[in-house]
Model the fold of this input.
Amino acid sequence: MKKILLETSFSKIYMIVMIIITLLILGGYFSYAMFTVTKEKENAISIVTGNLTYKLEVDGEEGNTLTVPANSRQDFIVTLTNPNNRAGRFNFYYEGSLPEGVDMGYIEKESYNVPPTETGISLEQVDTAGSSNTYIVRVSNTTSSSVTINLGVEVGLDYNDLELPDNGHLLRKITSTGIVSEVIKDDIMNRLNYEDEEQTFVTGSNPYNYIWYSGKLWRAVSIDPSDNSVKLVTQWSISAVPYDNDSSAFAGSYMESWLNDTTVDGFLGNLRDPEAFIKMNSKWNASQMSDTSKPPSEEEGGTIIEDAVGILNIYEYNMGGASGSYLDNKTQSWTLTPYNSTNVRYIYHTGAIYSERYTNAVGVRPSINLKPEIKVVSGNGTIDSPYRLEGDNDSNLSGTLLNTRYSGEYITFGTGENNLYRIVSHETEELTKITSAEPLKENGKFKTMAFGDSVYYSNTNEVGSFLNGEYLDSGTYLTSEQVNTIEDNTTWYLGTVGSGASYRLAKYGDINMSNLTSNVTIAKVGLLRLGELMGGQYNNSSNNANCTYLTPINSANIWNMMSFGQAYGWSPSYRVVIRPALNLKSNVIITGGDGTKENPFTLSVQ
Done:
């Protein structure tokens, strides 16, 4: 085969490839020109051409269309066939967004409620002719009309970790490395919007912009062209807190304080080496707005706040695509934008924008700006393989003390369906506070019970008695070896946080943190308090269905995280779901894993 050497960069090769790729579409049969790309020397690319073909069948017929009548469920047999003896990756996925009321899942693979591109069905064969994979696809349609779904196919080129994306026109790197801003810009799946001269926005329903940093999953939102720093926002709410008690302004609010609190009780204080990764003097536009238009600049009279950590304003949410985009995670969270003197804009669980009184407790999705020089060293930007950052991609951690790791990282702990936990903080010196990644389950359903007969937690009220009894002793939730790694006597702070009060009052006697609250209890196992890290809503709106905190809102009600991500006061007699919290001893060590959800830490004792 002929090699063509091009003195160009990876970003420029895309335009050249688009010109020379030809795509044949005949029914359900597709043929692509195949390209492998290798480095010949610095800034030089070698392109080798060949052929890569495949066939897509639905119920034995060539094609890619699934049609489901109104209010019915249909099962389809979908087959991908690879007649080549060349290595290739094939993934099928649906094209576009599924209509409301349509659920699409796989039976012979792990179930996906709505399978996005990066979790498509994979067929990968090396030097095997005529290989094929067959899957059953189940589509449930609860709409009042028939629904047609088109399957697409993504073709991956195995040799140099390159692949064709869903439009079949350009190559994208499966694993990208280099400066974060360049990696984000180089991937056409991110559909960048350059309309704003101050921020280049990532758009779309499912861009490849996932980043793992400091134990949390983030999305790249925009690039600042002036310095190539990249704005990130957490995929999920990290906690829920009242915005403030007397103002909708971000500056001086409890919200600003929680985000930039450098103690163990706040967000910034639990990030990994923030001064090495984050623009500590980032500017946040917190101007009051009644619409989603671009807020005024500082020169135009806008309200600009300088902080290390902020949250997105409604303009940024809108420029990312708003409802239906990757920024719409179907939970409720604050924005940076005041609506008037008493209300702050927030994202509703439908993706719409509404306003909420600042005294209420809504989910918080922190936002940071990565320094321009931060590099991606692995990953492909998908949820299963997020970009990993240089300096935050530890490997070979066997023998490392768990108490040296970071808030949000996952650990294997517990048994059966309750075997995944997350690090909360190191609130007590040398100990590691953890909580279950989602509420406790029993036979596939969330276990519920009343909090108790008062708003104060103890090891003798209903929840406390269960957590310090059956949870520890039955063998259903923990092994005996795991129970022995738990600190016997932890202090649980029971300070009251009223509507509009500071999150600090859950632990301290005053908002200046000059003394700890006198309302405490001692127990082996407890719960998270309002405003504590990892107390937010994760994964989807069902995972934290009315999950109780141990923080009273007043003498009659206890704070609860609702299923859609906002916290309210509930009577302690109501049934709630439970996320246990506990401290692991100082001699617990890591024996494997990297702390991600896909590869959680495994543990032992030193």
Notes: The first helix runs from residue 10 to 20. The chain is about 10% helix and 35% strand.
